[in-house]
Write a structure and sequence with these properties.
heterodimer; A: alpha/beta; TIM Barrel; Nucleotidyltransferase, domain 5; 2 domains; five-stranded mixed sheet; 17 helices; 18 strands; B: 66 residues; Alpha-Beta Plaits; two-stranded antiparallel ribbon; globular; binds iron/sulfur cluster
Chain lengths: 524, 66
Protein backbone atom coordinates (compact mmCIF):
# COMPACT_ATOMS: atom_id res chain seq x y z
CA UNK A 1 0.00 0.00 0.00
CA UNK A 2 2.97 2.21 -0.44
CA UNK A 3 2.09 5.29 -2.38
CA UNK A 4 3.26 8.56 -3.69
CA UNK A 5 2.56 10.03 -0.32
CA UNK A 6 4.87 7.66 1.44
CA UNK A 7 7.72 8.65 -0.79
CA UNK A 8 7.97 12.04 0.76
CA UNK A 9 7.39 13.48 4.15
CA UNK A 10 3.84 12.45 4.02
CA UNK A 11 1.26 14.84 5.27
CA UNK A 12 -0.54 11.87 6.61
CA UNK A 13 2.46 11.18 8.78
CA UNK A 14 2.57 14.79 9.82
CA UNK A 15 -0.93 14.45 11.02
CA UNK A 16 -0.16 11.58 13.33
CA UNK A 17 2.84 13.44 14.60
CA UNK A 18 0.69 16.43 15.23
CA UNK A 19 -1.31 14.37 17.64
CA UNK A 20 1.72 14.33 19.86
CA UNK A 21 1.34 18.05 20.26
CA UNK A 22 -1.81 17.63 22.21
CA UNK A 23 -0.16 15.37 24.72
CA UNK A 24 1.79 16.52 27.74
CA UNK A 25 5.42 17.00 26.94
CA UNK A 26 6.62 13.98 28.89
CA UNK A 27 4.03 11.60 27.62
CA UNK A 28 5.31 8.91 25.31
CA UNK A 29 4.89 10.58 22.00
CA UNK A 30 2.83 9.12 19.25
CA UNK A 31 5.51 7.65 17.12
CA UNK A 32 4.12 8.74 13.79
CA UNK A 33 4.45 6.12 11.15
CA UNK A 34 6.91 3.39 10.60
CA UNK A 35 7.87 2.40 14.10
CA UNK A 36 6.68 -1.14 13.83
CA UNK A 37 7.80 -2.21 10.39
CA UNK A 38 11.41 -2.50 9.43
CA UNK A 39 10.77 -0.49 6.32
CA UNK A 40 9.99 2.77 8.05
CA UNK A 41 7.71 5.00 6.08
CA UNK A 42 6.28 2.09 4.16
CA UNK A 43 3.57 1.87 6.76
CA UNK A 44 2.37 5.42 6.20
CA UNK A 45 -1.08 5.99 4.86
CA UNK A 46 -1.85 6.37 1.23
CA UNK A 47 -3.43 9.76 1.23
CA UNK A 48 -1.86 13.08 1.83
CA UNK A 49 -4.93 15.07 1.10
CA UNK A 50 -6.85 17.12 3.60
CA UNK A 51 -9.45 14.44 4.28
CA UNK A 52 -7.90 12.90 7.35
CA UNK A 53 -5.89 15.77 8.75
CA UNK A 54 -7.13 18.45 11.13
CA UNK A 55 -8.00 21.44 8.99
CA UNK A 56 -5.73 23.81 10.91
CA UNK A 57 -2.66 21.65 10.36
CA UNK A 58 -3.45 21.11 6.73
CA UNK A 59 -3.84 24.83 6.24
CA UNK A 60 -0.51 25.48 7.84
CA UNK A 61 1.49 23.03 5.82
CA UNK A 62 -0.22 22.57 2.49
CA UNK A 63 1.41 25.48 0.72
CA UNK A 64 4.64 25.48 2.65
CA UNK A 65 7.48 24.28 0.46
CA UNK A 66 9.68 23.46 3.42
CA UNK A 67 7.15 21.22 5.12
CA UNK A 68 5.39 19.42 2.37
CA UNK A 69 7.30 17.74 -0.39
CA UNK A 70 4.30 18.07 -2.68
CA UNK A 71 3.91 21.77 -2.05
CA UNK A 72 7.58 22.07 -2.70
CA UNK A 73 7.03 21.54 -6.42
CA UNK A 74 4.33 24.18 -6.72
CA UNK A 75 4.98 26.89 -4.19
CA UNK A 76 7.90 29.10 -3.46
CA UNK A 77 9.37 30.69 -0.43
CA UNK A 78 11.81 33.47 0.05
CA UNK A 79 14.09 34.60 2.80
CA UNK A 80 15.10 38.15 3.52
CA UNK A 81 18.40 38.96 5.16
CA UNK A 82 17.39 41.44 7.84
CA UNK A 83 19.00 39.84 10.88
CA UNK A 84 22.79 39.95 10.63
CA UNK A 85 23.63 39.72 14.33
CA UNK A 86 24.14 36.48 16.21
CA UNK A 87 24.38 35.60 19.88
CA UNK A 88 26.40 32.40 19.71
CA UNK A 89 29.35 31.03 17.79
CA UNK A 90 29.20 27.72 15.96
CA UNK A 91 32.37 25.97 14.88
CA UNK A 92 31.02 25.48 11.39
CA UNK A 93 30.24 29.14 10.89
CA UNK A 94 32.40 32.02 9.81
CA UNK A 95 30.50 35.15 10.59
CA UNK A 96 31.80 36.90 7.54
CA UNK A 97 29.14 34.83 5.79
CA UNK A 98 25.52 33.89 6.40
CA UNK A 99 24.35 31.68 9.24
CA UNK A 100 25.40 28.15 8.34
CA UNK A 101 22.41 26.72 10.13
CA UNK A 102 20.07 27.83 7.39
CA UNK A 103 22.32 28.61 4.46
CA UNK A 104 25.11 26.75 2.88
CA UNK A 105 28.29 28.09 4.39
CA UNK A 106 30.29 30.61 2.46
CA UNK A 107 27.35 32.58 1.14
CA UNK A 108 26.90 36.30 1.62
CA UNK A 109 23.46 37.82 1.38
CA UNK A 110 22.64 41.42 0.70
CA UNK A 111 21.58 42.85 4.03
CA UNK A 112 18.28 44.68 4.06
CA UNK A 113 16.53 47.02 6.44
CA UNK A 114 13.03 45.92 7.43
CA UNK A 115 11.58 48.54 5.04
CA UNK A 116 13.67 47.31 2.14
CA UNK A 117 12.85 43.73 3.00
CA UNK A 118 9.11 44.32 2.95
CA UNK A 119 9.38 46.13 -0.36
CA UNK A 120 11.32 43.21 -1.76
CA UNK A 121 8.82 40.64 -0.53
CA UNK A 122 5.87 42.53 -1.95
CA UNK A 123 7.67 42.96 -5.27
CA UNK A 124 8.52 39.28 -5.48
CA UNK A 125 5.05 38.19 -4.42
CA UNK A 126 3.48 40.33 -7.12
CA UNK A 127 5.78 38.87 -9.73
CA UNK A 128 5.69 35.24 -8.54
CA UNK A 129 2.19 34.33 -7.36
CA UNK A 130 3.34 30.98 -6.02
CA UNK A 131 5.46 32.80 -3.43
CA UNK A 132 3.57 31.91 -0.28
CA UNK A 133 6.15 31.82 2.47
CA UNK A 134 8.50 34.42 3.86
CA UNK A 135 11.24 33.30 6.18
CA UNK A 136 13.81 35.16 8.20
CA UNK A 137 16.84 33.00 8.63
CA UNK A 138 19.67 35.36 9.07
CA UNK A 139 22.22 36.14 7.85
CA UNK A 140 22.78 35.78 11.62
CA UNK A 141 20.21 34.60 14.12
CA UNK A 142 16.70 35.91 13.56
CA UNK A 143 16.09 36.30 17.29
CA UNK A 144 19.42 37.90 18.15
CA UNK A 145 18.09 41.09 16.62
CA UNK A 146 14.39 40.58 17.34
CA UNK A 147 13.41 44.18 16.58
CA UNK A 148 14.40 43.92 12.93
CA UNK A 149 12.82 40.52 12.52
CA UNK A 150 9.49 41.38 14.09
CA UNK A 151 9.33 44.80 12.48
CA UNK A 152 9.61 43.07 9.11
CA UNK A 153 6.85 40.61 9.98
CA UNK A 154 4.58 43.34 11.29
CA UNK A 155 4.85 45.51 8.19
CA UNK A 156 4.49 42.56 5.90
CA UNK A 157 1.38 41.32 7.61
CA UNK A 158 -0.22 44.68 6.95
CA UNK A 159 0.71 44.77 3.28
CA UNK A 160 0.48 41.13 2.26
CA UNK A 161 -1.70 39.29 4.74
CA UNK A 162 -1.81 36.05 2.76
CA UNK A 163 1.89 35.36 3.07
CA UNK A 164 2.89 32.84 5.69
CA UNK A 165 5.71 33.73 8.02
CA UNK A 166 8.45 31.62 9.47
CA UNK A 167 11.76 32.10 11.16
CA UNK A 168 14.86 30.15 12.05
CA UNK A 169 16.89 30.39 15.21
CA UNK A 170 19.61 28.72 17.22
CA UNK A 171 17.14 28.83 20.11
CA UNK A 172 19.17 30.77 22.65
CA UNK A 173 16.80 33.73 22.76
CA UNK A 174 13.71 31.73 21.87
CA UNK A 175 11.92 31.23 25.24
CA UNK A 176 11.83 34.97 25.92
CA UNK A 177 10.32 35.69 22.51
CA UNK A 178 7.64 33.03 22.20
CA UNK A 179 4.96 35.55 23.18
CA UNK A 180 6.18 37.90 20.50
CA UNK A 181 6.22 35.10 17.96
CA UNK A 182 2.62 34.23 18.74
CA UNK A 183 1.61 37.87 18.48
CA UNK A 184 2.72 38.08 14.87
CA UNK A 185 1.01 34.88 14.02
CA UNK A 186 4.18 33.18 12.89
CA UNK A 187 3.28 29.57 12.60
CA UNK A 188 6.51 27.94 11.54
CA UNK A 189 9.72 28.05 13.54
CA UNK A 190 12.96 26.24 12.74
CA UNK A 191 15.39 25.57 15.57
CA UNK A 192 18.88 24.26 14.92
CA UNK A 193 19.60 21.62 17.53
CA UNK A 194 22.84 19.69 17.16
CA UNK A 195 23.02 18.09 20.58
CA UNK A 196 21.13 17.27 23.75
CA UNK A 197 24.31 16.61 25.72
CA UNK A 198 26.36 19.67 26.69
CA UNK A 199 29.58 17.64 26.50
CA UNK A 200 28.86 17.16 22.81
CA UNK A 201 27.73 20.76 22.56
CA UNK A 202 31.03 22.05 23.89
CA UNK A 203 32.71 20.60 20.80
CA UNK A 204 30.33 22.46 18.50
CA UNK A 205 29.85 25.82 20.24
CA UNK A 206 32.92 27.66 21.51
CA UNK A 207 30.88 30.38 23.17
CA UNK A 208 27.53 32.07 23.61
CA UNK A 209 26.67 35.62 24.63
CA UNK A 210 24.37 35.29 27.59
CA UNK A 211 23.31 37.61 30.37
CA UNK A 212 25.87 40.24 29.37
CA UNK A 213 28.74 37.78 29.42
CA UNK A 214 30.59 35.59 27.02
CA UNK A 215 30.10 32.06 28.32
CA UNK A 216 32.25 29.18 27.05
CA UNK A 217 32.60 25.41 27.17
CA UNK A 218 30.14 23.02 28.78
CA UNK A 219 28.50 25.87 30.68
CA UNK A 220 27.65 27.59 27.41
CA UNK A 221 26.35 24.40 25.84
CA UNK A 222 24.25 23.67 28.91
CA UNK A 223 22.53 27.04 28.74
CA UNK A 224 21.98 26.73 25.01
CA UNK A 225 20.58 23.23 25.42
CA UNK A 226 18.16 24.29 28.16
CA UNK A 227 16.97 27.28 26.14
CA UNK A 228 16.45 25.13 23.05
CA UNK A 229 14.40 22.52 24.88
CA UNK A 230 12.37 25.12 26.73
CA UNK A 231 11.74 27.07 23.55
CA UNK A 232 10.63 23.95 21.72
CA UNK A 233 8.28 22.94 24.54
CA UNK A 234 6.77 26.42 24.67
CA UNK A 235 6.14 26.49 20.93
CA UNK A 236 4.59 23.04 21.06
CA UNK A 237 2.33 24.12 23.90
CA UNK A 238 1.17 27.09 21.78
CA UNK A 239 0.53 24.94 18.75
CA UNK A 240 3.29 26.48 16.66
CA UNK A 241 4.75 24.03 14.16
CA UNK A 242 8.44 23.41 14.60
CA UNK A 243 11.14 22.05 12.35
CA UNK A 244 14.42 20.96 13.89
CA UNK A 245 17.60 21.29 11.85
CA UNK A 246 20.60 19.21 12.86
CA UNK A 247 24.01 19.43 11.28
CA UNK A 248 25.62 16.01 11.05
CA UNK A 249 29.25 16.30 12.13
CA UNK A 250 31.06 12.97 11.76
CA UNK A 251 32.84 11.89 14.93
CA UNK A 252 31.10 14.55 17.01
CA UNK A 253 27.36 14.09 16.88
CA UNK A 254 26.60 11.40 14.29
CA UNK A 255 25.32 8.70 16.66
CA UNK A 256 24.14 11.36 19.05
CA UNK A 257 21.64 12.73 16.53
CA UNK A 258 19.50 9.66 17.06
CA UNK A 259 19.13 10.78 20.66
CA UNK A 260 18.48 14.34 19.52
CA UNK A 261 15.75 12.97 17.28
CA UNK A 262 14.18 11.17 20.22
CA UNK A 263 14.31 14.21 22.51
CA UNK A 264 12.88 16.68 20.01
CA UNK A 265 10.19 14.23 19.00
CA UNK A 266 9.21 13.84 22.64
CA UNK A 267 8.79 17.59 22.86
CA UNK A 268 6.48 17.71 19.88
CA UNK A 269 8.84 18.62 17.06
CA UNK A 270 6.99 18.47 13.80
CA UNK A 271 9.81 17.69 11.42
CA UNK A 272 13.47 16.82 11.77
CA UNK A 273 15.90 17.77 9.04
CA UNK A 274 19.35 16.20 9.29
CA UNK A 275 21.77 17.96 7.02
CA UNK A 276 25.41 17.35 6.23
CA UNK A 277 28.18 19.51 7.64
CA UNK A 278 29.66 21.54 4.85
CA UNK A 279 33.22 22.27 5.76
CA UNK A 280 35.78 23.74 3.43
CA UNK A 281 39.05 25.25 4.51
CA UNK A 282 38.44 28.37 2.46
CA UNK A 283 35.30 29.20 4.43
CA UNK A 284 37.62 29.88 7.35
CA UNK A 285 35.43 28.15 9.92
CA UNK A 286 36.94 26.39 12.92
CA UNK A 287 35.91 23.03 11.49
CA UNK A 288 37.16 24.02 8.07
CA UNK A 289 40.56 24.86 9.52
CA UNK A 290 40.85 21.81 11.78
CA UNK A 291 40.05 19.57 8.83
CA UNK A 292 36.76 18.30 10.29
CA UNK A 293 35.16 16.57 7.33
CA UNK A 294 31.52 16.40 6.34
CA UNK A 295 29.63 13.11 6.08
CA UNK A 296 29.47 10.99 2.94
CA UNK A 297 26.12 10.23 1.38
CA UNK A 298 26.03 6.83 3.05
CA UNK A 299 26.83 8.21 6.49
CA UNK A 300 24.11 10.83 6.15
CA UNK A 301 21.59 8.27 5.00
CA UNK A 302 22.51 5.87 7.80
CA UNK A 303 21.68 8.47 10.45
CA UNK A 304 18.55 9.58 8.62
CA UNK A 305 17.40 5.97 8.35
CA UNK A 306 18.09 5.36 12.03
CA UNK A 307 15.86 8.32 12.86
CA UNK A 308 12.95 7.26 10.68
CA UNK A 309 10.75 6.23 13.55
CA UNK A 310 11.18 9.52 15.36
CA UNK A 311 10.05 12.96 14.30
CA UNK A 312 9.23 12.98 10.62
CA UNK A 313 12.38 13.35 8.65
CA UNK A 314 12.57 15.95 6.01
CA UNK A 315 14.71 14.81 3.17
CA UNK A 316 14.27 17.50 0.58
CA UNK A 317 16.10 20.35 2.30
CA UNK A 318 18.71 21.87 0.02
CA UNK A 319 20.32 24.18 2.54
CA UNK A 320 19.37 27.19 0.55
CA UNK A 321 20.65 30.65 1.30
CA UNK A 322 19.35 33.38 3.58
CA UNK A 323 18.22 35.59 0.73
CA UNK A 324 16.95 32.85 -1.54
CA UNK A 325 14.00 33.62 -3.75
CA UNK A 326 12.01 31.01 -5.55
CA UNK A 327 11.15 27.36 -5.51
CA UNK A 328 13.42 25.55 -3.11
CA UNK A 329 15.88 24.48 -5.76
CA UNK A 330 16.00 27.55 -7.93
CA UNK A 331 17.33 30.84 -6.83
CA UNK A 332 16.02 33.97 -8.49
CA UNK A 333 17.63 36.49 -6.16
CA UNK A 334 19.39 38.15 -9.05
CA UNK A 335 16.10 39.38 -10.47
CA UNK A 336 15.27 41.10 -7.22
CA UNK A 337 18.31 43.00 -6.12
CA UNK A 338 17.76 46.21 -4.23
CA UNK A 339 18.42 48.45 -7.24
CA UNK A 340 15.93 46.57 -9.35
CA UNK A 341 13.28 46.64 -6.66
CA UNK A 342 13.67 50.36 -6.17
CA UNK A 343 12.68 50.80 -9.81
CA UNK A 344 9.75 48.40 -9.82
CA UNK A 345 6.17 49.59 -9.81
CA UNK A 346 4.58 47.21 -7.39
CA UNK A 347 0.88 46.51 -7.25
CA UNK A 348 -0.04 43.86 -4.75
CA UNK A 349 -2.98 42.04 -6.23
CA UNK A 350 -4.38 39.67 -3.67
CA UNK A 351 -7.14 38.39 -5.96
CA UNK A 352 -4.75 37.49 -8.70
CA UNK A 353 -2.62 35.59 -6.23
CA UNK A 354 -5.63 33.76 -4.85
CA UNK A 355 -6.84 32.66 -8.25
CA UNK A 356 -3.38 31.45 -9.17
CA UNK A 357 -3.17 29.44 -5.98
CA UNK A 358 -6.59 27.93 -6.57
CA UNK A 359 -5.46 26.82 -10.00
CA UNK A 360 -2.32 25.24 -8.60
CA UNK A 361 -4.34 23.50 -5.95
CA UNK A 362 -6.64 21.90 -8.54
CA UNK A 363 -3.70 20.86 -10.66
CA UNK A 364 -1.95 19.36 -7.69
CA UNK A 365 -4.97 17.31 -6.68
CA UNK A 366 -5.31 16.00 -10.23
CA UNK A 367 -1.64 15.15 -10.36
CA UNK A 368 -1.82 13.36 -7.07
CA UNK A 369 -4.80 11.28 -8.17
CA UNK A 370 -3.09 10.38 -11.44
CA UNK A 371 -0.03 9.29 -9.55
CA UNK A 372 -1.94 7.05 -7.18
CA UNK A 373 -3.67 5.47 -10.14
CA UNK A 374 -0.47 4.94 -12.07
CA UNK A 375 1.14 3.36 -9.06
CA UNK A 376 -1.73 1.02 -8.38
CA UNK A 377 -1.17 -0.44 -11.82
CA UNK A 378 2.51 -1.08 -11.08
CA UNK A 379 2.23 -2.76 -7.73
CA UNK A 380 2.50 -6.42 -8.61
CA UNK A 381 5.10 -6.03 -11.31
CA UNK A 382 8.11 -6.33 -9.02
CA UNK A 383 9.64 -9.62 -7.99
CA UNK A 384 10.36 -9.68 -4.28
CA UNK A 385 13.84 -10.96 -3.75
CA UNK A 386 15.27 -8.74 -1.08
CA UNK A 387 17.17 -6.44 -3.41
CA UNK A 388 17.15 -2.76 -2.51
CA UNK A 389 18.90 -0.17 -4.64
CA UNK A 390 19.16 3.57 -5.08
CA UNK A 391 18.29 5.29 -8.31
CA UNK A 392 18.94 8.88 -9.31
CA UNK A 393 16.21 10.75 -11.17
CA UNK A 394 16.46 13.87 -13.33
CA UNK A 395 13.26 15.87 -13.01
CA UNK A 396 12.14 19.42 -13.51
CA UNK A 397 9.20 18.86 -11.18
CA UNK A 398 5.67 17.56 -11.34
CA UNK A 399 6.88 14.26 -9.94
CA UNK A 400 7.88 12.94 -13.35
CA UNK A 401 11.03 11.77 -15.10
CA UNK A 402 11.33 14.69 -17.46
CA UNK A 403 14.79 16.18 -17.45
CA UNK A 404 17.74 15.78 -19.78
CA UNK A 405 20.74 14.31 -18.00
CA UNK A 406 22.86 17.21 -19.13
CA UNK A 407 20.45 19.81 -17.78
CA UNK A 408 20.22 18.43 -14.28
CA UNK A 409 21.94 20.37 -11.55
CA UNK A 410 20.53 18.01 -8.99
CA UNK A 411 19.10 14.51 -8.90
CA UNK A 412 16.35 13.14 -6.71
CA UNK A 413 17.40 9.91 -5.07
CA UNK A 414 14.90 7.10 -4.57
CA UNK A 415 15.41 3.90 -2.69
CA UNK A 416 13.68 1.16 -4.63
CA UNK A 417 12.75 -2.33 -3.57
CA UNK A 418 9.96 -4.64 -4.64
CA UNK A 419 6.74 -2.65 -4.57
CA UNK A 420 8.24 0.46 -3.06
CA UNK A 421 10.05 3.58 -4.26
CA UNK A 422 10.94 5.86 -1.40
CA UNK A 423 12.25 9.39 -1.83
CA UNK A 424 15.38 9.70 0.26
CA UNK A 425 16.99 12.96 -0.77
CA UNK A 426 18.55 15.25 -3.30
CA UNK A 427 22.03 15.16 -4.71
CA UNK A 428 23.38 18.33 -6.19
CA UNK A 429 25.80 18.17 -9.05
CA UNK A 430 27.53 20.68 -11.23
CA UNK A 431 25.71 21.31 -14.44
CA UNK A 432 27.05 18.81 -16.91
CA UNK A 433 25.74 20.37 -20.03
CA UNK A 434 25.95 24.09 -20.72
CA UNK A 435 24.14 25.34 -23.78
CA UNK A 436 23.37 21.99 -25.29
CA UNK A 437 26.72 20.25 -25.34
CA UNK A 438 28.40 18.26 -22.64
CA UNK A 439 31.58 19.30 -20.97
CA UNK A 440 33.46 16.13 -20.32
CA UNK A 441 35.44 17.30 -17.35
CA UNK A 442 32.31 17.71 -15.25
CA UNK A 443 31.11 14.18 -15.69
CA UNK A 444 33.33 12.57 -13.06
CA UNK A 445 31.87 14.84 -10.39
CA UNK A 446 28.37 13.68 -11.32
CA UNK A 447 29.51 10.09 -11.13
CA UNK A 448 30.89 10.63 -7.61
CA UNK A 449 27.69 12.37 -6.57
CA UNK A 450 25.48 9.44 -7.61
CA UNK A 451 28.05 6.69 -7.27
CA UNK A 452 25.84 4.83 -4.79
CA UNK A 453 23.05 4.52 -7.38
CA UNK A 454 22.41 1.57 -9.67
CA UNK A 455 20.64 3.60 -12.31
CA UNK A 456 19.88 7.13 -13.37
CA UNK A 457 16.46 7.87 -14.85
CA UNK A 458 16.44 10.69 -17.38
CA UNK A 459 14.37 11.92 -20.31
CA UNK A 460 17.37 11.96 -22.61
CA UNK A 461 21.11 11.49 -22.42
CA UNK A 462 24.00 11.96 -24.81
CA UNK A 463 26.09 9.06 -26.12
CA UNK A 464 29.25 10.09 -24.36
CA UNK A 465 27.94 10.43 -20.79
CA UNK A 466 25.93 7.26 -21.38
CA UNK A 467 29.12 5.31 -21.97
CA UNK A 468 30.91 6.84 -19.02
CA UNK A 469 28.05 6.09 -16.65
CA UNK A 470 27.98 2.52 -17.86
CA UNK A 471 31.71 2.24 -17.36
CA UNK A 472 31.19 3.44 -13.78
CA UNK A 473 28.50 0.80 -13.28
CA UNK A 474 25.52 3.16 -13.30
CA UNK A 475 22.79 2.24 -15.75
CA UNK A 476 21.48 5.19 -17.78
CA UNK A 477 17.72 4.73 -18.33
CA UNK A 478 15.74 6.84 -20.77
CA UNK A 479 12.72 4.73 -21.61
CA UNK A 480 10.36 6.07 -18.95
CA UNK A 481 10.09 9.62 -20.22
CA UNK A 482 7.36 11.66 -18.50
CA UNK A 483 6.31 8.74 -16.32
CA UNK A 484 5.67 9.40 -12.64
CA UNK A 485 8.95 8.85 -10.87
CA UNK A 486 7.78 6.11 -8.54
CA UNK A 487 6.17 4.25 -11.38
CA UNK A 488 9.27 4.58 -13.56
CA UNK A 489 11.53 3.50 -10.73
CA UNK A 490 9.40 0.45 -9.95
CA UNK A 491 9.14 -0.52 -13.61
CA UNK A 492 12.88 -0.23 -14.04
CA UNK A 493 13.36 -2.23 -10.86
CA UNK A 494 11.11 -5.03 -12.10
CA UNK A 495 13.09 -5.08 -15.31
CA UNK A 496 16.38 -5.07 -13.41
CA UNK A 497 15.48 -7.86 -11.01
CA UNK A 498 14.14 -9.80 -13.99
CA UNK A 499 17.52 -9.51 -15.68
CA UNK A 500 19.27 -10.52 -12.48
CA UNK A 501 16.96 -13.53 -12.12
CA UNK A 502 17.67 -14.59 -15.69
CA UNK A 503 21.38 -14.26 -15.07
CA UNK A 504 21.79 -11.46 -17.62
CA UNK A 505 22.99 -9.03 -15.00
CA UNK A 506 24.94 -9.64 -11.83
CA UNK A 507 23.58 -7.68 -8.91
CA UNK A 508 26.40 -5.88 -7.14
CA UNK A 509 26.51 -3.44 -4.26
CA UNK A 510 27.44 0.13 -5.15
CA UNK A 511 30.01 2.33 -3.47
CA UNK A 512 29.51 5.47 -1.42
CA UNK A 513 28.85 8.91 -2.89
CA UNK A 514 30.16 12.32 -2.01
CA UNK A 515 28.06 15.29 -1.00
CA UNK A 516 28.86 18.34 -3.02
CA UNK A 517 30.46 21.10 -1.00
CA UNK A 518 30.10 24.76 -1.68
CA UNK A 519 27.29 27.24 -1.73
CA UNK A 520 24.07 26.57 -3.56
CA UNK A 521 23.87 29.68 -5.62
CA UNK A 522 23.21 28.25 -9.03
CA UNK A 523 20.39 30.00 -10.81
CA UNK A 524 20.58 27.77 -13.84
CA UNK B 1 39.03 55.76 27.78
CA UNK B 2 37.36 54.11 24.89
CA UNK B 3 37.42 51.17 22.56
CA UNK B 4 37.44 51.30 18.81
CA UNK B 5 36.32 48.96 16.05
CA UNK B 6 38.93 47.91 13.51
CA UNK B 7 37.11 48.63 10.27
CA UNK B 8 39.03 46.01 8.29
CA UNK B 9 37.84 43.24 10.58
CA UNK B 10 34.27 44.36 11.22
CA UNK B 11 31.73 42.27 9.31
CA UNK B 12 29.01 44.83 9.89
CA UNK B 13 26.90 42.26 11.70
CA UNK B 14 25.50 44.87 14.11
CA UNK B 15 25.55 42.53 17.11
CA UNK B 16 27.47 45.07 19.19
CA UNK B 17 25.18 48.02 18.59
CA UNK B 18 22.21 47.17 20.83
CA UNK B 19 24.43 45.80 23.60
CA UNK B 20 26.15 49.09 24.38
CA UNK B 21 24.82 50.64 27.59
CA UNK B 22 25.85 54.11 26.40
CA UNK B 23 24.61 54.06 22.83
CA UNK B 24 28.16 54.70 21.77
CA UNK B 25 27.98 52.46 18.72
CA UNK B 26 26.44 53.51 15.42
CA UNK B 27 26.42 52.42 11.84
CA UNK B 28 28.18 54.35 9.11
CA UNK B 29 27.85 52.87 5.62
CA UNK B 30 27.67 49.22 6.69
CA UNK B 31 30.48 49.65 9.20
CA UNK B 32 30.15 50.22 12.87
CA UNK B 33 32.01 52.84 14.83
CA UNK B 34 32.36 53.71 18.50
CA UNK B 35 31.97 57.28 19.62
CA UNK B 36 34.99 57.76 21.90
CA UNK B 37 33.18 60.47 23.82
CA UNK B 38 30.40 58.09 24.83
CA UNK B 39 32.29 54.83 25.36
CA UNK B 40 33.14 54.05 28.99
CA UNK B 41 34.49 50.56 28.26
CA UNK B 42 31.34 49.57 30.11
CA UNK B 43 32.83 50.52 33.42
CA UNK B 44 30.14 50.84 36.06
CA UNK B 45 27.66 48.90 33.95
CA UNK B 46 29.19 45.50 33.26
CA UNK B 47 32.25 43.45 34.11
CA UNK B 48 33.41 43.21 30.53
CA UNK B 49 32.94 45.46 27.53
CA UNK B 50 29.72 44.22 25.99
CA UNK B 51 30.70 44.89 22.41
CA UNK B 52 33.84 42.76 22.75
CA UNK B 53 31.94 39.90 24.37
CA UNK B 54 29.37 39.70 21.57
CA UNK B 55 31.59 40.44 18.58
CA UNK B 56 32.18 37.32 16.48
CA UNK B 57 35.57 38.51 15.19
CA UNK B 58 38.61 38.16 17.44
CA UNK B 59 40.58 41.36 17.99
CA UNK B 60 38.03 43.41 16.09
CA UNK B 61 37.42 45.76 19.01
CA UNK B 62 40.53 47.09 20.73
CA UNK B 63 41.46 49.90 23.10
CA UNK B 64 41.76 53.21 21.33
CA UNK B 65 45.49 53.78 21.10
CA UNK B 66 46.27 56.50 23.56
S1 LIG C 1 23.72 30.47 14.82
FE1 LIG C 1 24.08 30.73 12.63
S2 LIG C 1 25.05 32.78 12.46
FE2 LIG C 1 25.16 32.18 14.60
S3 LIG C 1 27.19 31.27 14.77
FE3 LIG C 1 25.73 29.58 14.43
S4 LIG C 1 25.71 29.25 12.22
FE4 LIG C 1 26.68 31.25 12.60
S1 LIG D 1 32.98 49.08 25.55
FE1 LIG D 1 30.92 49.21 26.35
S2 LIG D 1 30.51 51.40 26.33
FE2 LIG D 1 32.24 51.08 24.97
S3 LIG D 1 31.32 50.83 22.98
FE3 LIG D 1 31.61 48.80 23.82
S4 LIG D 1 29.64 48.35 24.76
FE4 LIG D 1 29.68 50.56 24.44
S1 LIG E 1 29.94 42.99 16.56
FE1 LIG E 1 32.00 43.16 15.71
S2 LIG E 1 31.77 42.53 13.58
FE2 LIG E 1 29.72 42.92 14.35
S3 LIG E 1 29.31 45.05 13.79
FE3 LIG E 1 30.13 45.06 15.86
S4 LIG E 1 32.34 45.34 15.58
FE4 LIG E 1 31.52 44.73 13.62
Amino acid sequence: MQSAAASYVSLDALKSNRNALAEPVDAPAHAGCGTSGGEGKASCGTSDGPDDMPADVWNKVKNHPCYSEEAHHHYARMHVAVAPACNIQCNYCNRKYDCSNESRPGVVSQKLTPEQAVKKVVAVASEIPQMTVLGIAGPGDSLASPKKTFETFRMLQEQAPDIKLCLSTNGLALPGLVDEICKYNIDHVTITINMVDPEVGAKIYPWIFWDHRRVTGVEAATILHQQQMLGLEMLTARGVLTKINSVLIPGINDEHLIEVNREVKKRGAFLHNIMPLISEAEHGTVFGLTGQRGPTAQELKAVQDACMGGANLMRHCRQCRADAVGLLGEDRSEEFTLDKIEEMEVVYDLDRRRSYQDRVEAERQAQHAAKVEALAATQDAGAADGIKVLVAVATTGGGRVNQHFGHADEFQIFEVSAGEALFVGHRRVDLFCQGGYGEDEKLPSIVTAINDCHAVLVSKIGACPRDELKAAGIEPVDNYVDEFIEKAALSWFADYTGRVARGETVHQARGDASIRQGAFTAAA
Amino acid sequence: MSLKIIADLCTGCSACEPECPNEAISEKKNLFIIDPDKCTECEGDYDTPQCVAVCPVDHCILPLAA
